[in-house]
Amino acid sequence: MQFLTHEELNRATAESSQEPPPEPWPDPTPIDQHKVPPFPIEIFPTWLGRYVKAVAVATQTPPDLPGMVVLGVISLALARRLRIKIHPSWSEPLNLYLVVVLAPGNRKSAVFQEATRPVLEYENYAARQMAPDIERARAQQAILKARLAELSKKASKAPREQQEELMRQAEDAALELANFEVPVSPRLFADDVTVEKLVSLVQAHGGRMAVLSAEGGIFQIAGGRYSRDINIEFFLKGHAGDSHRVDRMNRASESIDRPALTLVLTVQPGVIQGLVKHQDFRSLGLLARFLYSLPVSTVGLRMIDPPALPRELAEAYRMNIRRLLELEFERDPQGHYIERELMVGRDARVLLNDFSTWLEPQLGTSGALANIADWAGKLAGAVARIAGILHMADHAHENFGKFGVVSADTMRRAITLGHYLIEHAKAAHAEMGADPDVDEARYLLEHLTQLGQPMVSKRDLHRVTRGRFKTVRDLAPALGLLVDHGYLVPFDDQRGGPGRRSEFYSVHPSLRREEPATAAAAGDFVHSVHELQGAPAVAGNFVHSVQPKRVDPDDMPDDPQPTEPEQGEFELTS
Q1: Closest CA to 372 of 293, 444, 419, 427
Q2: Cα–Cα distance, 266 to 511 (Å, whole number)
């Protein structure tokens, strides 16, 4: 047993005491609000970066919103046309799954309509151009059907010596009809669509399709809105480019080689908060395929009469997106669609390898990204896809006869966006309830509110939460979040010598229970040296390691008076 003398006690008090931050404290950031980096507009070429900035100003929205949507628009244009080849055994398609999360009233629809307008315009233009060909093909198909019907009728009534020839002609007509294809009116995207219809659209349009939606209905559809079962298999294959085969009763068989599905969604927080109930969404890898953005809302800070989007910027955007949309499909000698390959330069490949090397250790069970390892494990591939998209955006105004090589500068910009996406993925998974650190921080916050103390130690918190935290060390991630969000402020305890990490925290006033300070009663656990000496408690002077000698309350007078402690009356408990 070790005891403190008066001099040691006073010295311990002076060394461990530190005034908490002066009040009023800044308001803490709610646990549900996440510290995320701003969108790095500088990754885009000039024509696209200026457009994104101008749309953000004109709509008074965070640049993240138009930035992510235009990334998805270019992905839509390039999907199934090109893929990026990092090295002989690793290549990636250029389609992306993107989701931007913003509360209602943030003008998501206005940005969405503006950024996707060139896609709708091109789709309508292409449909008008194809209309005459489609009508001619339908007429030819009708003629083939009528000829087959006529030959079949003749063959059934003809004399036996004529029947064989008529049947041969009918078979030839049937084969010609089976091989005859009527072109479909071009479609580039859908919105509210069932999974079955989406598969049919992808098959009918060269193996690619996009879902562009200012809402998050596709999550409800995948979760079983129109059926009893969760149906996400095609979304998994459509991201990776895995072949898809469907053979079901009462439906024609469908076969798609290397489907390329693009998803661009702008949703409300409640949409992703509800994803946690669909465990298969994460366990099967759907959520790991999305790139997330949770911008800081501008509501309450917006200009009432902002400048309009400059016409020349909108026109440059429209023209360049159209050039990308007009890229022709490549076909092999058998007429099958194939993707052309973008090659990655040596220096760019080194940068991507370095990024992957930096990322890998963080995916382990004790790594910084352990909670989202399923998502982060796909990030290097996503960065490669983004590099391919940025490369094509860089050269959108040039002749596409030769696509060039993806440069180190382009890969560096893609990696910059990768770092942005990491922080936003952490925030998104926290919103989904998939981040245990956030849940534990909320749990601690409840107990801090119940304690109502202006200062607390890590050990005291562990005493009241050991049902959830096995060791004091287990508190660290949740405490770190509370510090980051401004609920707690650590202060130094130097008694253990230089380098000792403080175990004490000042608590935000909003969590304190204001009560008049009183002298300690005999037998009570005393948090303040000043209480022991009969003085009022002063915020900031708590010494949790000092405890009074226990005295039986029955032996104390009815109205005990504080007395000067005797040497040896206090024992050091930690």
Answers
A1: 427
A2: 35
Q: Which amino acid is at 282?
A: R
> Which residue type, as a one-letter code, is found at position 278?
H
- How many whole angstroms separate alpha carbon 154 and alpha carbon 176? 18
Residue 164, C-beta contacts closer than 8 angstroms, at least 6 positions apart: none
Tell me the per-residue pLDDT of 127-184, one tens digit each, with 9 for 90 and over.
898 888 888 888 988 888 888 888 888 888 888 878 888 888 888 888 888 888 877 8
Q: Which residue has the tokens 């998502």?
A: 375
Instruction: Tell me the H-state helices in 98-107.
Output: none
Using CB atoms within 10 Å of the CB of residue 215, give its burial: 0 to 12 exposed, 13 to 18 middle, 19+ buried.
middle
Mapped onto helix, strand or coil, the DSSP state of residue 265 is strand
Give residues with Cβ within 8 angstroms of 112, minimum separation 6.
Answer: 69, 212, 214, 266
Look at residue 513 in the predicted model and tell me its pLDDT. Answer: 76
What does DSSP say about strands 254-256 and 244-246: parallel, antiparallel, or unpaired? antiparallel
Helices (H), 60-107: 64-78
DSSP class of residue 191 equals S
Q: What is the pLDDT, as a whole number, of residue 520?
A: 44
Examine residue 307 and say whether the peptide bond preceding it is cis (omega within 30 degrees of 0).
Answer: no
Kindly report, residue by residue over 292-348, the tens digit of the pLDDT: 999 999 999 999 999 999 999 999 999 999 999 998 777 777 666 778 899 999 999
How far apart are the C-alpha atoms of 169 and 163, rounded to whole Å?
A: 10
Of 297, 299, 298, 295, which Cα lies nearest the Cα of 424? 295
Q: Average per-residue pLDDT in the chain?
A: 81
- Taking the C-alpha atoms of residue 507 and residue 485, their distance in angstroms, rounded to an integer, is 12
The Cα diameter of the chain in Å comes to 130
**pLDDT confidence of residue 86:** 96
Look at phi and psi of residue 330 and say left if phi exceeds 0, alpha if psi is from -120 to 50, else beta: beta
What whole-number distance in Å separates Cα of residue 63 and Cα of residue 41? 8
User: How far apart are the C-alpha atoms of 425 and 378, rounded to whole Å?
Assistant: 12
Judging by DSSP bridges, how do beta strands 208-213 and 189-190 pair with one another?
parallel
Global confidence as pTM: 0.72
Whole-Å CA distances, 336 to 75, 208, 528: 21, 14, 80
CB count in 10 Å sphere of residue 248: 9
